[in-house]
Design a protein that fits this description.
10 helices; homohexamer; Rossmann fold; amino-acid racemase activity (chains A, B, C, D, E, F); 2 domains; Asp/Glu/hydantoin_racemase (chains A, B, C, D, E, F); Iso_Racemase_Enz_sf (chains A, B, C, D, E, F); four-stranded parallel β-sheet; globular; Allantoin racemase (chains A, B, C, D, E, F)
């Protein structure tokens, strides 16, 4: 069972963190690797970045199909390109926001999300609603740490932890969802500090893909997610056509 | 990692089927067993049966805690006693309806549920809505086979399969959720026959519990699911008090 | 016209309070009594208690059918066993949460609920949503008085009153719903103190049952609430089978 | 306890029917009468008619306050002028659509509405949603009998009955709500014919007002429904100013 | 292209303000005028006033049809008589609340409404929900200035501006909707002061009508909004019959 | 006032059609042009195509800002890249799906959408829900004509017309929304044929942008839609970084 975690930004250090967190939960029968997108932004902090991370993500999925990958995780909390990736892949593709909010709903009556910059809150809200989890989501909060600073700012861990603690208090939440793949390695620390369950979407999505594969489930055979019709592409993205 | 699947009806043959299906997906590091309730109805086909299956379920959870079980599956599509079980157990407890509808939402835009008797459709609708999955559910259909006849009626497999096929056609669904633990072993057959993903909640819930345990996640530490306050109990259920 | 109010906990003193409040609003042509459950918890303060109050409640309904009762009130704000009771009874069965939130919606644009322990808030929220009244409910608040202390704690009346006053101010509500049958006799006092309508579910449910009977309305003849199919029962609950 | 049922159209024969149906369910301690609007349309079959029935309705409420009436029923399924009437009246005011859909939700999982002309279906849908009952409403159907023909057309009873039967079959409903005050006296007949509960809003609203009065409940004391601020009125409606 | 803005209160000074604001945005090919209702309240500050403004509004629409008007704006934030006006008019009729909340949804993720008296908040909430814009509305706030004082109170501009500023801060909104036609001329000032988009419904509705006319779109030909059936009217409103 | 309509596919013939339809409704003071994307797919018929049309769209917006464009229309019914475009542009950006569904809601109680291929139905549903218009949308139907065949298939006009007629009949809708920019020039023909309002999103969005500009409204100044933070970009999309 081969699972590939795609980091849709181009920062390898972040891919390493993500891979470590995914490997920590994968089962013994699972071959898991993480890859870094080769096209697009160094980090995803706007609708613009997110939209422009999709070609790189889709190239990675296409390569994964060549490599015989069975299922994929999209390791950015905006779940960029999820529907398009599902068209390309034969097996399941799960976004980390998708997996995280579903998981949180099993743990109590309401959860909070803590994300990086305030400008990403809207996207997190859209996704939560889209997955049917809006009724369990009590608040989405920014800690105003840029994505890449999560790895480099010595205060990052403390700031995210305190943002989580404050979110639980304000929202009277039962659990916290970490709203950025770059927070994956903070998960256990924050849980220990604040005493409520904390969900890392990278781990949650890895396990969701593994579970779907274990059950032999893949995207439905009906039309919406069938292979895209062949199409002529122009300009920079010429190679994406067929 | 010890997972226990509780069959909240008292029919051992059904527990055997359930256990087989759960074991088929559990990971190598998982010790899994299935137990049969010792109190209550032989099958669950009404609100009355479902309500009266709860004491037996809770007794099984209590025993599980003594036995050092880490997580539980409630193997009846009405998810009887789920909230109360979460109060008793230290680890995660997942119902098969809960797991099945969440799983189905990863596979496409809409799913159908096929259940046993028409009188159970209302409960399935309530649960689907409760879990936030109402927007993905396109229809809930009965095949009018009593629960225990699933094991004994030679036509059962054919009837359930045709009900699934009809549901997909009528609802234009991407996937089918089997609405009874007793259908667990029909899952692969039906999928092969009708060509869309078919979800068995027993497998889905087993894997959800296993994933939660793998991530170290359990019910939230906040008050709603804390151990129930000690209480004097009277009459037949005297032994449930403290 | 015979109406029976069932107190699904086993505390007779609370039944007396409930009966008094129900009798105060019943019409002259109504024969009303209140009975105490003989099986289960002394008070209902958790999902566990609520689930385990159902067998006693159902036994009381079964006895009511023998006694020629025409309609029932379930006098606990968790509306335990409501669907199952509707299967057993020929006439209408109404829960006090159900009646209270419907009533509150006639009185203004939004109401608050004040309940006993914080751990019961989730159940009240589920029910409010289930009855379609979520859009009118602005908040559910606990006063942290245990159910039985409502009768014995000399400060109870004051504490509940102040919780109601605070709820109205915080939620900008038009009315308050009392979230426990044990608060029934505080209703008039609180209304006088805080100057907004206060709804006691025991009175509201009694009048709803009486009105349904007056109109000749009972549960629908369609399948979901038909008499449960006969079934073999095992163990402690053997006598509930047929 | 004085309850007044206001027929907001100007057809006395219809008021007589309405009064008979209201009296049939009112309690022995209730003084009930029905009055006919003196301003506006002979029947209400459009948004135009409904809007223009409101001045007459409000004049009747104003007279009722002079006459010492304790509570009111608005006997048209469009619930015309309900919010404005609540501002004028000291006691409760209930619309027959409001009461009917609430009542129907106690009887099963879903109801159908059968109304007169198709052009009134939209208003019925708005109201059902507004009262929070949209999740229980499975369909709203017209039988295309004009309001006043309900009293005069010898086939009316048959046509409405068949429309109800068809609605239940198509919607798989548990109950039927009659969507016109002029159908009030058909209620028992239709129930007997089609074998599911049939709700007449006139009876339901009369009993709701009576119940609210019995509980001492009236509109909330907060601002939205306080007496309207004094205002200069011009033209035909000069007398409505103060 | 003739557009008429109907002020449904009887205060000419307010009509002048409204007309000025509508003319400021109308295209060069548009003949636009504003008329004052001749029947009803001097200002609309209650459900009572709003209901009683409808006959005057409908008379103005009827006159407009005689005058060859192509489309109408209803210039009161309660959108009084909108459905009935649509039945009378051949061309489009748009309410200012309707246009304003739709417009606000194009400008960001959430808006606030600032209205006059607190007692009108409920109506604004109903309309916002009715138009499907509830998910974008983060709060509705009153500034407690009576409608006519908007023109006469020297502090009005300052008070409304500060209410808008406070609403944005409290609701974390992206835009503000002015909840009264009488605030139309404050729009640019407030936007300049608080630095977020501010929407005046008079301008928004004028442009919506003009756009619909430009596209040749009018109310649907299906039945709900067809010309009302002829009807005998009685009393003060006799002239409204046919 | 300069408005630019961006066709996010690379087919110039379709841009010509789109430009013609936009010009037909633009006001005399509006300078309007339409441009064709230079990067990406020849037509947009899958999530894959839609995602990969975004870089070309964003390049066109960036060029528009250089050219002094005041507002933009995204002329594909999937509204690709709308949020990202709003970050780049100083003025308003409107998608044709967004404008079309809002417009349809002004014309009656419910509308149908008729789109090209069945696999695009899901995206249309997501958008309709996202814009708050789900409650007005009664069905989304495919006519199974590929996008580019709309211009070349001699039967296209007939097939789309019949699909619209069938949608109205099946959904009992008041209006039809055309679900593809390539259908823009069919709008008047279909309306004449089927006799209900038909909405072309290109015209609707052009007028919405023009109206917003006329009111001086642009995206909110708050953070979500501020200019994206500068970022290093890699690979094919290097030039999109800063």
């Amino acid at each position: 069972m081969r699972i590939r975690v795609v980091n849709p930004n181009t920062t390898r250090a972040m891919t390493d963190t993500i891979e470590r967190c995914a490997l920590a939960v994968a089962g013994p029968g699972t071959l898991l690797d993480a890859v870094t997108s080769e096209i697009g932004p160094a980090s995803i902090e706007s609708h613009y970045d997110e939209a422009l991370s999709v070609p790189g993500l889709l190239a990675a999925i296409r390569q994964g199909e060549v490599d015989g990958v069975d299922g994929y995780v999209i390791a950015c909390f905006g779940d960029p390109g999820l529907d398009a990736a599902r068209e390309l892949a034969q097996g399941p593709v799960i976004g980390i926001a998708e997996a995280a909010v579903h998981t949180a709903s099993h743990l109590g009556r309401g959860f909070s999300v803590v994300t990086t910059l305030a400008r990403t809150v809207g996207r997190a809200a859209d996704l939560t609603e889209h997955y049917g989890m809006g009724r369990f989501c009590r608040g989405i909060h920014a800690c105003e740490i840029p994505v890449l600073a999560l790895e480099t700012d010595p205060d990052a861990r403390k700031i995210v932890t305190e943002a989580c603690r404050a979110a639980v208090a304000q929202d009277e939440s039962d659990a916290v969802v970490l709203g950025c793949a770059g927070m994956a390695d903070l998960c256990a620390h924050i849980r220990d500090e604040i005493g409520v369950p904390v969900i890392d979407g990278v781990a949650a999505a890895t396990l969701t893909v593994q579970s779907l594969l274990m059950m032999g489930l893949r995207k439905s055979g009906r039309g919406e997610f069938a292979t895209p019709p062949p199409k002529s592409y122009t300009g920079l993205l010429r190679s994406f056509g067929s």
